[in-house]
Amino acid sequence: MNEPAFDDEVVGAVLAHMNDDHRADSPHIVRAFGRPQARDAEMVGLDEHGGVWWVDTVDEAGGDGSELRVPWPDGPVSDRAALRRAVVALHEDALRRLALPGR
Description:
Layout: H1 8-21, H2 25-32, E1 40-47, E2 50-56, E3 65-71, H3 80-97
């Protein structure tokens, strides 16, 4: 069996950073990559292949939440520096897709 590319400490640190310091970025990502109706999103997981978000789609029509997996733009990553670049690239791609200004 293959070991995960990132241990629980790295995953936890990335999730905390994304959800605490870049909370507004997650809705952009999920709206651009498959859930345009998302009201909010929280990053809940990741591996070498992509990130996972819990997407809040609750609305007056009675929707609910679900997970969305989004692959890293340039394929699998194998170290923390590449992971950081992948998350940044994913958000930049989301902004382009949504026609929103970059940072």
